[in-house]
Amino acid sequence: MAELLRLAVGAAVGLPAPVLLVSFAASVPASLAAGAGVLLFAAALWACRKLAGVQRRAAAVPAPYAPLTGGPLARLRTVVRDPATWRDLLWLPCQFVAGVGGFVVAVALWLAAVQCVTAPALRALLPSPTGYDPAVLEWTGRSGPLTWILVPVGAGLTVVAVWLPRHLVRAQAALARALLAPTSAARLAARVDRLTTTRAAAVDASAAELRRIERDLHDGAQARLVLLAMHLGVASDVIDDDPAVAKALLAEARTGAGAALTELRGLVRGIHPPVLADRGLAAAVHALVLGSAVTVQLDLRLARRLAAPVEAAAYFATAEALGNAIRHSGAGEIRIALVDAGDAVHITVRDNGVGGADPSRGTGLLGIQRRLSAFDGTLHVTSPSGGPTVLEMSLPCEA
C-alpha cells in the first residue's frame, strides 16, 4: 500500500503538467509581444518548481537552483537563466506520463486481479446479464469453467500488482535523479562557491590566530624578556660596587627567564602540541583531557597516523569543543569519541549540561565550523534546552 500511495503522489504531481505547459506556452508570446503574461509566466514557473520540489523530496534529490537575490524582476531573470528551470520543464511532461500512467497501471492491475479471483462468485451472484456486467463476465461469456480458469490468472495478477508498483516508484525516482538532480557542472560550481567561502573564512581565522599569537608574545614573553634584559643590565652595572644587589637581580632574571620559557612553551603548545607531532592524535587528545576539571570519557578508535593537517584540525576542533563544554555547559560528564572510518574521521563530543548551544551565537562553535570547513568537513549541533549537547564533526582524511 505504501507504494500505491507514493504512486498516487507521483500522479498528483504530474497531473497539472498539461495546464502548466499550456499556460507557459500561452504566456511566452504575450510576454514577448507587449509585456503581458509576465505574471502568468512567473506563476507557471513557480508552480513547476514547487511540483519538482515535491518529487525531489520524495526521491531524496538535492535542489540545484541558483540563489535568488534582488527584486522580483531580478529574481525572475535569475530563474529564467537558470538551466535547472528548463530541466524542470522537461521533467514535467515526463512525470505526467510516468506518474499518471504508473498509477493507472497499478490500480488497473488490482482491479483486474480482484475481478479475476472473484469471477465465479460474480457469476453466481449475477446469474443473468444486467447491462453492467464486470469485464471478466463479458470476456468469458458467463461460462462457468472459464470463470474458474480466471482464478489462477487473478492470483498471478495479484503477484504482479504487488511487485510492479515498487519498480514504478523506482523508475520515477530515477527520472527525478536524471532530470532534477544537479548536473556535474552545477555540483562543481556549488563546490567552488563553498570552497571560496570557506577559504575566506580560513584566511580570516588564520589572520585572527596570528594576531592572537602576536598579542600573547607582546604582552607575555616579550615583556618578561625586556624585564630580564633590564635586570641583567643593572646587575652588570652594580656587580663591582654591590655584589649582593647584583645577585638578587640575577636571581630575579633567572626567575623571569623561567616564566618566559613557560609562556613560550604554552604558546607553542597552542600552535601545535609536541605530543601531537610525536605520538599522534589519540595521544594528544588523551593528554588534553588529563588536566580537565570535568570527568571526560574517551572512546579513541584511531589505528593509524593521519596527515598532519588533518590531525591538527581534528585536535583543535576537539579541544575547542571540550573547552566550550567545560566553560558554558555546566556539565558533570563529557564523552569524546574519535573514530577513523577510513575516508573520514568522525568526532563526537557529548555533555550532560544545560544545552541551548547555538552556532549563530558566540564564536566557539563558529570557530570549529570554520576550521572544519577549510578541510571540507562538517559540524552538526544538537542542543535542546536542558541538554544534552551533542557535537558531531566529520573531517575527510584525504583533505
Structure notes:
With about 400 residues, this protein is α+β, with helices and mostly antiparallel strands. It has three domains: about 1-180, no CATH class; about 195-270; about 280-395, 2-Layer Sandwich (Heat Shock Protein 90). Helix content is about 70%, strand content about 10%. It has a five-stranded mixed beta sheet with strand order 1-2-3-5-4, with helices on one face. Strand 1 (about 295-300), helix 13 (about 310-330) and strand 2 (about 335-340) form a beta-alpha-beta unit. Helix 1 packs across helix 5. The radius of gyration is 36 Å and the shape is elongated. The protein starts with a helix and ends with a strand. The mean pLDDT is about 75.
Shape: elongated
Q: Could you say how many structural domains there are in total?
A: 3
Structural class based on helices, strands and sheet pairing: alpha+beta
The number of helical segments is: 14
Order of strands side by side in the largest beta sheet? 1-2-3-5-4
Fraction of residues in helix: 55-70%
Question: How is this structure best summarized?
Answer:
Keywords: ATP-binding, Kinase, Membrane, Nucleotide-binding, Phosphoprotein, Transferase, Transmembrane, Transmembrane helix, Two-component regulatory system. The chain is an alpha+beta fold. It contains 14 helices and five strands.
